[in-house]
């Protein structure tokens, strides 16, 4: 759906409906444009009309000026609040948008458009529970509305309500069986639930409806247990030949082709496709490796042993969370599955909550290096750390299903926030999942991540990121001796009996046999490793990367001392 | 006096009859009497609650508004308090108490210029109101007008020798110019009357540090920091000074934590004034984007020579790059008239640099558009007290580097003297020193932020270089310290000034000039190489700033490691 028919300029309902159709079809930019026109058609006030024109034409500064001026005089003008919120949402300030929309809804609870926008910004900020509540409220008044239902389903997958999400997607698909993207989202939920055959069927249906839908192809490849056939390789290659294919589809297809060739033992072709996929992805991502290096340097500068000593006694004393940190593809899903097989531990997923708190602490800067995190930790009081710890636990609770005393948060990037974690939750356990640098980096290079991990689309970025990670962890090993338990993936695979016992002991948990039979655990798993952990530990993966060594020279050179010292850290 | 008066300043209330707006005169009189009794008993909590109730009942009276505002101030609701006090001033324009209270409240919001107008009016109406003179002094100090601040404190003390605010203010001013013994004597007077008075404790600690007794200073500051009654600013300043004290003991990681606590305290305190995008850095980045799109030739244009002055030079660089020293030196020359960090370009900024996009208009501006701004500049220079006739006029403001496009268009005859110092020392020093808060100073509160802002300023200067050409002369701070006569001599030559030995005696003048920047106390001691290469001691802490600074370190020819 690229050239949907435009509505009449004054037809707010028409623009709204067009926005909905575009959103369901996955054309988010066009949907936003239609929603902007909807606002323009809804406002009668000439100043707001001018502001809405500015929004439609992408003149953010003008829109800001005009709307502020209206709000200065009429702070409760709900349409102005709505417009201001849309502007905030589009300029990367979802929190401001949320505040504005909450104010508008306080004045006008029946303002459906504002409520929908509110649900969307809540969802964008990871406030899934609230987003679900808003989506449900919208559905009360308009029960079959596909956009609301789909938003509710997407939010439910964030808090592990996968069964309910699957039902909601199914309901949307029963009414609109031609929505390729919804079939794919449905496939993702089925995969998480371990209903692999149905997931494959859903992905295949998405591909039937839209053969160039790269992400659906990649999702099939990413099951890592379903080899794509010769025929699939030919079809994907043919799609790549279509010049009008968008980059998003293109890099997904390249990743999928890489995986398909690798499975067929065609390593040279596989590497070519991986390289092409990553180059495309990297070009579209604004990742600046200096940002990570600067963050690591700031943490090292500030978070000294004396810094922690001076702040002892703050934070929430609750011991509930077990954080698994490290790089993606370093065995963290395996560790989580082992821990989650313990009777006292609940697995959740990669929770964005710590990153959300850290981002908020950093202030409104556009780049993290221009913000005040982690410096701001220097001025927070013990009570503020406690409040942060409690807020984390409260946010995490939304992802929990049982009352097990402990739960696992396996967001790998949390290694960047160990200082914050330690200060707000001093009794939480921290596990560092570490894997051979070349194996780990190459595995991440082969992977397309649905979100985050922007450093993983170039071998040079990966090597630098891995080095920054090892440097920061070495700093915390020195500043907080014993605070982090490290699991070396190769050691875990070689001797699970010992390593699992050590892991459990580090968490203060008694040994349980079930932890060695983690693959029998039927819990939902939603990372790149989801299908791998449904099998017993297998050892061939540890040196699988060596097949690709001929292409990994630059990576290994860039890893340098980190590679030589592995599994220890070099001196920094 | 309750400790809360640290936060609210002197209280002066005029209780009187209800105003004409009153509806039930008898009831209003009764509630005023009740409130007055509470004030008499110095029970300001009760008075505040009663005032709030009376206000809700429609009693629009200055004292009632003042007390209700005082209650809001206690709850840190300064914006609302200001609105009540503005009403009080409207009801009773001649009530100096209301104006004084409004001024104090505005100061809590950092609205110093507006506050000063209220204090000016308060002392005009009531010339013997010692508290208002003292508050006015504090306000002038914040505005960097140190000489006038000193006069205001002095006036307050003439009227009321025991006025603690004025004594503490004088102590602080004295400390700032490095006269620690004198400052300590004043602070001790304050502390005798009111033990723990934060500003006085800070002055004594600074004296102890200067005298080499870091241990005593540290204990004093740590005790002060744990006092929950400190305002956020006082807490931040105490932590910053603690950083200096730890630095003096070479306890670098701890000093760094203390500086971080200071800076982040200030960051939070001033978030409402400076925390809303675009930040000064984003503004500068926007300018760079525009400059890249504009033909550099646009910045070379004809213009008029300065009226009256024999020459005109802008002394630029970056904060902590040696501009104050250079200005002090030049100001010692009999043919030079200098202004230190005054906003001489504000009219021009409003007209042609309110947003980065304005640069497009500035590049294309005609002389008809620019002439009034040039006139406004010279008028402002005169207002600030500079007498430029027959002199070389030095306009020193390190952050005017970011306004070079305006300078180039308005003053094509002016020269530019550029103070340069190792970027790493500059940025570390910016991070460690405490400036009068501004959008730019807000940017210096983190190391990557300060480095980014430095980078942006240098990028702007670099883009303006083709237009300025031979009108620029760079003075390296390190070179000036190593070879004063040689480096100052060639700067003078560039400016068309002859050599005079008076240049060497600059520090004698420093004591007297009331320098508002953090350099004041340092320069009073004369030339010092102490600050050269300081960043090496903070090598690990500086790492977050280095990526942005590395290119400038290289380009300016400083040692890479």
Q: What is the helix fraction of residues of chain A, given as a range? A: 55-70%
Give the low-confidence spans of chain B: 1-11
Average pLDDT taken over every residue of chain B:
89
Fraction of residues in H or I helices of chain B: 55-70%
User: Count the strands of chain A?
Assistant: 5
Provide the residue-averaged pLDDT of chain A. Answer: 91
Shape, per Cα inertia axes of chain A: globular
Structural class of chain B: mainly alpha
What gross morphology of chain B would you assign?
Answer: globular
Radius of gyration of chain B: 25 Å
Q: Output the strand order for the largest sheet of chain B.
A: 2-3-1-4-5
Greatest contact pair?
A-B, 26 and 33 residues
Q: Quick one: how many beta strands of chain B?
A: 5
Please outline the major beta sheet of chain B: 5 strands, parallel
Describe the protein's architecture and organization.
The complex is a heterodimer of chains A (572) and B (561). By secondary structure, chain A is mostly helical. Chain A is 59% helix and 4% strand. Chain A has a five-stranded parallel β-sheet, with helices on both faces. In chain A, helix 4 (60-73) runs antiparallel to helix 5. Chain A is globular. The termini of chain A are far apart. By secondary structure, chain B is mostly helical. Chain B has a five-stranded parallel β-sheet. The N and C termini of chain B lie far apart (55 Å). The interface between A and B is medium-sized, with 26 and 33 residues.
Q: How does the SSE layout of this entry go?
A:
The complex is a heterodimer of chains A (572) and B (561).
Chain A: H1 12-25, H2 28-42, H3 46-56, H4 60-73, H5 78-90, H6 94-107, H7 112-124, H8 128-141, H9 146-158, H10 162-175, H11 180-192, H12 196-209, H13 214-222, H14 230-241, H15 247-263, H16 267-284, H17 289-302, H18 305-310, E1 321-326, H19 332-340, E2 345-347, H20 353-361, H21 382-397, E3 406-409, H22 418-424, E4 429-434, H23 437-446, H24 459-479, E5 484-488, H25 489-494, H26 496-506, H27 553-565
Chain B: H1 4-8, H2 25-40, H3 44-56, H4 62-74, H5 78-91, H6 96-108, H7 112-125, H8 130-142, H9 146-159, H10 164-176, H11 180-193, H12 198-210, H13 214-225, H14 232-248, H15 252-269, H16 271-274, H17 280-293, E1 311-316, H18 323-331, E2 336-340, H19 346-352, H20 358-364, H21 367-383, E3 392-396, H22 404-410, E4 415-420, H23 423-432, H24 439-443, H25 447-468, E5 472-476, H26 477-482, H27 484-495, H28 506-513, H29 520-524, H30 539-542, H31 546-555
Parallel strand pairs in B: 1-3, 1-4, 2-3, 4-5
């Amino acid at each position: 759906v690229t050239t949907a028919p435009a509505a009449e300029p004054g037809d707010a309902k028409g623009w709204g409906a067009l926005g909905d159709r575009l959103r369901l079809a996955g054309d988010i930019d066009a949907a936003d444009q239609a929603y902007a026109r909807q606002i323009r058609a809804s406002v009668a006030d000439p100043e707001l009309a001018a502001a809405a024109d500015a929004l439609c034409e992408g003149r953010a500064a003008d829109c800001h000026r005009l709307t502020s001026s209206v709000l200065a005089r009429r702070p409760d003008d709900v349409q102005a609040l709505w417009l201001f919120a849309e502007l905030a949402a589009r300029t990367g300030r979802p929190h401001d948008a949320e505040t504005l929309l909450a104010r508008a809804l306080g004045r006008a609870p029946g303002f459906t458009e504002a409520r929908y926008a509110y649900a969307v910004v809540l969802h964008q900020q990871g406030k899934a529970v609230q987003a679900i509540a808003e989506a449900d409220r919208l559905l009360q008044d308009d029960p079959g509305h596909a956009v609301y239902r789909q938003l509710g389903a997407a939010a439910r997958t964030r808090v592990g309500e996968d069964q309910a999400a699957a039902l909601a997607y199914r309901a949307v698909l029963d009414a609109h069986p031609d929505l390729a993207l919804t079939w794919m989202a449905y496939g993702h939920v089925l995969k998480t639930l371990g209903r692999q055959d149905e997931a494959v069927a859903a992905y295949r249906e998405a591909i039937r409806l839209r053969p160039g839908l790269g992400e659906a192809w990649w999702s099939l490849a990413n099951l890592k247990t379903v080899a794509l056939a010769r025929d699939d390789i030919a079809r994907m290659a043919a799609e790549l030949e279509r010049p009008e294919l968008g980059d998003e589809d293109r890099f997904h297809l390249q990743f999928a082709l890489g995986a398909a060739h690798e499975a067929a033992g065609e390593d040279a072709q596989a590497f070519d496709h991986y390289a092409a996929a990553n180059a495309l992805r990297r070009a579209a991502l604004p990742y600046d490796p200096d940002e990570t290096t600067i963050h690591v340097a700031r943490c090292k500068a500030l978070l000294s042993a004396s810094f922690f000593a001076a702040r002892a006694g703050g934070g929430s004393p609750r011991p509930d969370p077990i954080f698994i940190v490290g790089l993606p593809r370093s065995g963290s899903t395996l560790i989580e599955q082992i821990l989650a097989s313990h009777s006292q531990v609940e697995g959740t997923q990669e929770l964005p909550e710590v990153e959300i708190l850290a981002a908020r602490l950093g202030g409104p800067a556009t780049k993290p290096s221009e913000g005040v995190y982690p410096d701001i930790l220097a001025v927070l009081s013990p009570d503020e750390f406690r409040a942060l710890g409690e807020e984390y636990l409260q946010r995490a609770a939304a992802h929990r299903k049982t009352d097990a005393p402990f739960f696992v948060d396996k967001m790998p990037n949390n290694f960047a926030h160990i200082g914050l974690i330690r200060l707000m939750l001093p009794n939480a356990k921290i596990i560092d999942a570490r894997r051979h640098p070349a194996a780990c980096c190459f595995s991440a290079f082969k992977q397309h991540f649905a979100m985050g991990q922007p450093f993983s689309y170039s071998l040079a970025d990966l090597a630098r990121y891995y080095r920054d990670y090892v440097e920061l962890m070495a700093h915390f090993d020195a500043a907080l001796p014993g605070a982090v338990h490290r699991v070396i993936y190769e050691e875990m695979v070689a001797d699970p009996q010992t390593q699992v016992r050590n892991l459990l002991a580090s968490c203060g948990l008694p040994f349980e046999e079930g932890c060695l039979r983690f693959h029998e655990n039927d819990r939902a798993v939603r990372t790149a490793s989801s299908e791998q952990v449904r099998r017993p530990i297998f050892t061939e993966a540890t040196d699988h990367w060596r097949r690709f060594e001929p292409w990994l020279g630059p990576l290994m050179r860039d890893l340098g001392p980190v590679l030589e010292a592995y599994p220890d850290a070099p001196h920094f | 006096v309750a400790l809360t008066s640290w936060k609210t300043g002197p209280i002066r209330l005029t209780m009187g009859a209800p105003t004409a707006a009153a509806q039930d005169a008898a009831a209003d009189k009764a509630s005023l009497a009740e409130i007055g009794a509470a004030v008499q008993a110095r029970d300001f909590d009760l008075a505040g609650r009663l005032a709030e109730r009376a206000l809700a009942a429609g009693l629009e009276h200055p004292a009632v508004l003042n007390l209700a505002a005082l209650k809001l101030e206690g709850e840190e609701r300064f914006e609302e308090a200001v609105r009540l006090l503005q009403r009080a001033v409207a009801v009773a324009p001649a009530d100096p108490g209301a104006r004084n209270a409004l001024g104090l409240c505005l100061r809590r919001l950092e609205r110093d210029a507006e506050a000063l107008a209220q204090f000016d009016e308060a002392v005009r109406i009531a010339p013997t109101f010692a508290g208002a003179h003292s508050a006015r002094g504090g306000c002038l100090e914040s505005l960097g007008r140190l000489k006038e601040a000193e006069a205001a404190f002095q006036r307050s003390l003439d009227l009321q020798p025991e006025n603690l605010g004025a004594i503490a203010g004088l102590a602080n001013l004295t400390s700032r110019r490095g006269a620690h013994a004198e400052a300590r004597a004043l602070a001790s007077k304050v502390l005798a009357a009111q033990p723990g008075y934060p500003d006085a404790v800070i002055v004594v600690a600074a004296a102890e540090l200067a005298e080499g007794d870091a241990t005593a200073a540290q204990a004093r500051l740590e005790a002060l920091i744990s006092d929950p009654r400190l305002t956020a600013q006082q807490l931040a300043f105490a932590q910053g000074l603690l950083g200096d004290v730890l630095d003096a003991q070479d306890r670098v990681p701890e000093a760094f934590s203390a500086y971080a606590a200071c800076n982040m305290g200030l960051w939070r305190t001033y978030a409402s004034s400076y925390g809303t995008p675009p930040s000064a850095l984003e503004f500068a980045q926007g300018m760079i984007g525009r400059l890249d799109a504009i033909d550099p030739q646009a910045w070379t244009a004809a213009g008029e020579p300065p009226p009256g002055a024999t020459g005109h030079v802008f002394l630029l660089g970056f904060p902590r790059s040696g501009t104050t020293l250079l200005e002090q030196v030049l100001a010692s020359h009999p043919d030079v008239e200098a202004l230190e960090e005054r906003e001489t370009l504000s009219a021009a900024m409003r007209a042609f640099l309110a947003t980065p996009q304005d640069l497009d208009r500035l590049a294309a501006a005609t002389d008809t558009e620019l002439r009034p701004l040039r006139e406004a500049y010279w008028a402002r220079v005169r207002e600030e007290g500079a007498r430029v006739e027959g002199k070389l006029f030095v306009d020193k403001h390190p952050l005017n580097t970011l306004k070079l496009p305006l300078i180039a268009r308005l003053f094509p005859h002016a020269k530019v003297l550029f103070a340069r110092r190792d970027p790493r020392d500059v940025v570390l020093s910016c991070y460690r020193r405490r400036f009068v808060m501004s959008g730019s100073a807000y940017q210096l509160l983190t190391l990557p932020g300060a480095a980014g802002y430095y980078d942006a300023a240098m990028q702007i200067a670099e883009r303006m270089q083709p237009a300025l050409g031979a009108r620029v002369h760079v003075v390296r701070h390190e070179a000036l310290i190593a070879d004063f006569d040689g480096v100052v001599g060639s700067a003078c030559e560039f400016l068309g000034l002859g050599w005079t030995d008076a240049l060497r005696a600059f520090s004698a003048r420093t004591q007297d000039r009331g320098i508002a920047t953090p350099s004041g106390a340092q320069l009073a001691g004369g030339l010092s190489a102490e600050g050269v290469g300081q960043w090496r001691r903070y090598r690990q802490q500086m790492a977050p700033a280095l990526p942005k600074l590395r290119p400038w370190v290289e380009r300016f020819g400083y040692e890479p490691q």
